[in-house]
Amino acid sequence: MPAATALTLTAPAASATPAKRPAAAERVYAHVKQAVLERRYEGGTLLTEGELAEAVGVSRTPVREALLKLEVEGLLRLYPKKGALVLPVSAQEIADVVETRLLVETHAVRKAVPAPAALLERLAELLAQQRVQAAAGDFAAAAVTDRCFHAEIVRSGGNEILSRLYDQLRDRQLRMGVAVMHSHPDRIAKTLAEHEEILAALVAGDAEAAVAVVTRHVGWFQNLARGEVR
């Protein structure tokens, strides 16, 4: 009887490469930017390299790299040997963002009529999501959903250049949105009501009504320009 052949089971080679951890500077960048946008680091806060290095678990070198990038984006101002100052949202920045949003969004909402069913469904979904977030007091998440609601309308026009221009406002919109919800908590209910009006106008195919609501809704942010928002 032939000898039994030994069957050797080779363990799978450890070829499955584990997901790479983001580079140290990227982790610092993401940590600081998110904290600034969500106002955990408010305007006027001085951040030090040592504190950030300890918070993220990295050395000071990647911290400097991340802070330089955030300074270029206009969120911080670096002071050698002192740290980085989180810049408040200025009245001029608010005015500039509002002016740009009105130009883009009034054009986009008019162009969205007649609105395709997919857009109406997506807007209704985002509105329901924002209601839940607002009820839970999750201002950061509600601000993100708010911004997505408007971005969906802009994207529906199919103009890639306009969509990219609008996307450049993202960080400023989020920061201003969270600031509004903290300083004007009564504004959340008004925002939801105006989103409902925008959706209703699109459902009805009334372009002029949609433009009127968007103008009133976005234009309200001019109220923040009375002073700097931290």
From TrEMBL:
InterPro entries tied to this protein: GntR_C (IPR011711), TF_FadR/GntR_C (IPR008920), Tscrpt_reg_HTH_GntR (IPR000524), WH-like_DNA-bd_sf (IPR036388), WH_DNA-bd_sf (IPR036390)
Span of domain HTH gntR-type: 22-89
SMART domains from the UniProt entry: FCD, HTH_GNTR
Keyword DNA-binding appears in the UniProt entry: yes
Keyword Transcription part of the UniProt annotation: yes
Domain of life: Bacteria
GO molecular function: DNA binding; DNA-binding transcription factor activity
Keyword vocabulary terms for this entry: DNA-binding, Transcription, Transcription regulation
Record PROSITE patterns: HTH_GNTR
Name this polypeptide is given: GntR family transcriptional regulator
